[in-house]
From TrEMBL:
<dbReference type="Pfam" id="PF00201">
    <property type="entry name" value="UDPGT"/>
</dbReference>
<dbReference type="GO" id="GO:0009813">
    <property type="term" value="P:flavonoid biosynthetic process"/>
</dbReference>
<dbReference type="GO" id="GO:0035251">
    <property type="term" value="F:UDP-glucosyltransferase activity"/>
</dbReference>
<keyword id="KW-0808">Transferase</keyword>
<keyword id="KW-0284">Flavonoid biosynthesis</keyword>
<dbReference type="InterPro" id="IPR035595">
    <property type="entry name" value="UDP_glycos_trans_CS"/>
</dbReference>
<protein>
    <recommendedName>
        <fullName>Glycosyltransferase</fullName>
        <ecNumber>2.4.1.-</ecNumber>
    </recommendedName>
</protein>
<keyword id="KW-0328">Glycosyltransferase</keyword>
<dbReference type="InterPro" id="IPR002213">
    <property type="entry name" value="UDP_glucos_trans"/>
</dbReference>
<comment type="similarity">
    <text>Belongs to the UDP-glycosyltransferase family.</text>
</comment>
Amino acid sequence: MDSQNHHQLHFVLFPLMAPGHFIPMVDMAKLLAQHGVTVTVITTPLIAARLRPTINRATASGLPIRLLHLPFPSVAAGLPEGCESFDDITSPNLVNNFVVAIDMLQQSFEQLFELLEPKPSCMIADKHIPWVAESGRKFQLPTIIFHVMSCFTLLCVHNLCVSKVYESVSGSEPFMLPGLPDAIEVTKSQLPRSIGPSSLIMQDFEARVRAVEEQAYGMVVNSFEELEPRYVNGFRKIKERLWCIGPPSQCNKDNLDKAQRGNKASIDENQCLKWLDTQEQGSVVYACLGSLSSLTPAQLVELGFGLELSKRPFVWVIRSGDKAEEIDKWMEEDEFQKRTKERGLIIRGWAPQVLILDHPAVGAFLTHCGWNSILEGVCAGVPMITWPQFAEQFLTEKLVVKVLETGVSVGAQAVVNLFEEDNFAVLMKREAIMKAVDEVMDEGIKGEERRKRARDLAEMAKRAVEEGGSSYLNIRLLIQDVMQQLKDNGPNENHNSS
Ligand code: UDP
């Protein structure tokens, strides 16, 4: 792809142990390697096993990528054996143990780092690994953090933390997001839990994450400039060294690469494509709420009814953790599958999401507004039905619905608790889900305009990663910057300066 050969450059990538973080990091590894940089991805053994087919295909195609793993101290940190990824967590109490396990990794990471050949030129790490800046300093390397969120969200969070405007409002009282080029309202109940009061342990963790952000040499953002130009420029005023290199999922060109991202799909991809082939173009609603959200059985039932009432064909992904037995029982007793079998494909477990979204039969994406899912929907050129759940997802919903105008909200009001069945969360009713699906699939002018905007964004996304596109050029700028750093600071011998 790139005529220049940067084989002397070696980037070490260290993702957070969560699908929404290691999937785009591996895609980014491929993009960097296409520019001739040697890339090493370091992760835990079980995540490495999930990623190996992708990495093997990449190396077989000639890309200089290597996958290494470190033993993850699950049991020593009080986690169940084999719990190595956030999607293995079954209770909110285990989050603290997971943070402890990540802390325990530092020593073995640094020991491995010291042995790496060729000597690393820089490290791109997730900001949620709170010791990466310290390790980077020890090895005298630029530490660049990887953001899996939009510049819109980054700017919102920055402005909220500076202004603290949310402190003087009640939970459900709408207020204007400060300092944005668009007038957008939000409520305190919709803000990520990292803003505002939280437990002492989490406060400490968030403070360490903020310190990583402040100390980082620069930031790589999983977005692209044309998607949100005013917000990229706005955030660049705050963080000067910022490279938008996405959407990284665009590096997956063939069906196998699209189907096997971050996990083995629980449906045969050919069976899935065959089913989609039988549906009319633009008719199918694809419903998937990401790798972590866990809906209550009652909420899953409402979602099922909402899809049924919409009278559209649908693909519905039900996570393995989502009380599968209870849902199976309901489906059987209620004869849900019998009634919808002609037009509903249910995937229990891991869906080949990008493969599905890219199929011409898909006409809309019902999403929880995880940033990867949103970008994947943007690349597929489909409008979205937005149902945010946790973290920054309500802010992302605002970007999709109010700024890009490619989505319709189901009307969720407040963030839910992650990793637990939030029985206190307000039930999203089937009628609200059906109404949002109807609005997005509407064949009138408004629906057509929304679809056109979505198609235009998909074109921009494609161009951004092609040779000469904005993200392609940003990757080159990032590489040049790291090269300049090495020149200015002399060859890095990796001496541990601590
Ligand atoms: N994903 C997938 N199949 C699934 C669930 C998720 O391929 O059944 C992928 C999805 O394509 C995306 C990632 O997992 O790349 C989820 O990241 P996102 O930021 O959308 O949400 P999160 O799971 O972090 O909440």
